[in-house]
Amino acid sequence: FPNFAHRSVRLHLLMKGRMPKNHRLPYEWYNSPNIHLTTLADFRDFCRSEGMRIMQEIPLRTQSRRATSRIHVFPNLFADFAVYHIRPEGNRPG
Fold it and tell me: What's the whole-number mean pLDDT along residues 59-67?
């Protein structure tokens, strides 16, 4: 999901005071089909409150001219997308 705590989104909100609209998010905020905008920190809290265990979190930088790369430092600020592997709490593999 797109990370709405990414620095470019924060800057856009600070400078323009409006939700970003771009090639990845081409809809107005009120007309966005099947997408719920969130941040990595909010998603972690949601998983915890819903009894979901985060098995793996992969914060990514995709807005670079270089290849997509994994973010290790301050992911909620620098990752523009994230991929999660989650499962209900209590389930164990195998």
Answer: 80
